[in-house]
Amino acid sequence: MRSYLLAAAAAALLPVAALFPVAAQAQIAPDFAGVRVSTLGVGAEFGLKLNDHFTVRAIGNGANFGYHDTTDDGIRYDGDLKLASYGAQVDYRFAANGPLYVTAGAYKNDNKVQATGRYTGNVIVGGIPLTPAQVGVLTARAKFDDTVPYLGLGARWPVGHLEFNLEAGAYFQGRPRVTLTSDSIYANDPNVQTAIENERASLENDIKDFKTYPALTLGLRYKF
Fold first, then answer.
1. Residue 207's pLDDT is what?
2. Rounded-to-integer distance, Cα 103 and Cα 47, Å
3. Which of 60, 61, 200, 219 is placed for a possible disulfide with 36 were both Cys, Cβ 3.0 to 4.6 Å?
4. What's this model's pTM, rounded to 2 decimal places?
5. Nearest Cα to 74, choosing from 113, 143, 130?
6. Using N-to-C axis directions, what is the helix angle for 14-24 and 2-12, rounded to 10°?
7. Phi then psi for 217, rounded to 5 degrees?
8. For residues 179 and 199, what is the distance between their CA atoms, to the nearest angstrom?
9. Distance (Å, rounded) from C-alpha 79 to C-alpha 72?
10. How is the chain split into domains, by residue range?
11. For the chain (length 224 residues), average pLDDT per consecutive 10?
12. In angstroms, rounded to a whole number, what is the distance separating the alpha carbons of residues 24 and 12?
């Protein structure tokens, strides 16, 4: 699925590449400043107009969400999904006064998941039965690539000095990397280490689909 999306986005961006020499010679002027709500969080953006077709945007997003999940083994994980991203996008507008545009960009990605695993009584961790004393409190952390590409398609509708913006795209943040640690005094026991590693691999597999994160954005801008 990801390869098809990348191929389609690359084809859509061909007109952008062809017109970059024109954009490079353009007179840069402020275009808009706005706020946005998206699956990447709440944020703000500032746009610079290069010409009738090209706009460059600086964008920041962020949000925190509570995370609760109970595994098949009976371990309850409570934590936070922390979204934070900062970057820039280049928009190519198909028609000078038309609403549709294609966009590409790159972001500093600080999206992460932090959670604590708790349970009552004996528990099976990574397929291995353990006592509460052997397991201790589990701390899970998941991170993604630090710098990630973004591709999208959007539309913008001006209303006087205001402008509404709707955009859908894909944020390619890479395969998650999960760490799982225990505060148990038995954490160095080989059986406990094997159980925790099996559990870590299972958690990593559970969130692997987040490597391609869908981005849907609704924005409100003030036009200069």
1. 87
2. 13
3. 219
4. 0.79
5. 130
6. 40
7. -130, 140
8. 10
9. 18
10. 2-223
11. 45 46 66 96 96 95 89 81 95 93 96 87 80 87 95 96 96 94 89 90 89 95 95
12. 20
Give the CA diameter of the chain: 69
Give the CATH class of 2-223: mainly beta
The one-letter amino acid code at 188 reads N
Q: Are 161 and 130 in contact (CB under 8 A)?
A: no
Nearest by Cα to 93 from 158, 190, 142 = 158
58: tokens are 């600086």
Distance CA 19, CA 53 (A): 9
Looking at residue 25, its pLDDT comes to 56
* Size of the chain in residues: 224
CB atoms within 10 A of CB 161: 10
Question: What is d(CA 176, CA 212) in angstroms, rounded to the nearest whole number?
Answer: 10
The alpha carbon of 101 is separated from its chain's Cα centroid by a whole number of angstroms, namely 21
Query: Of the candidates 218, 215, 224, 216, which has an alpha carbon nearest to the alpha carbon of residue 164?
Result: 218
Q: Do 210 and 144 touch, CB atoms closer than 8 A? A: yes
Distance CA 200, CA 182 (A): 11
9's CB contacts (< 8 A; 6+ apart) are: 102, 104, 151, 170
Residue 105 and residue 151: Cα distance in Å, rounded? Answer: 7
Separation of first and last alpha carbons in the chain: 39
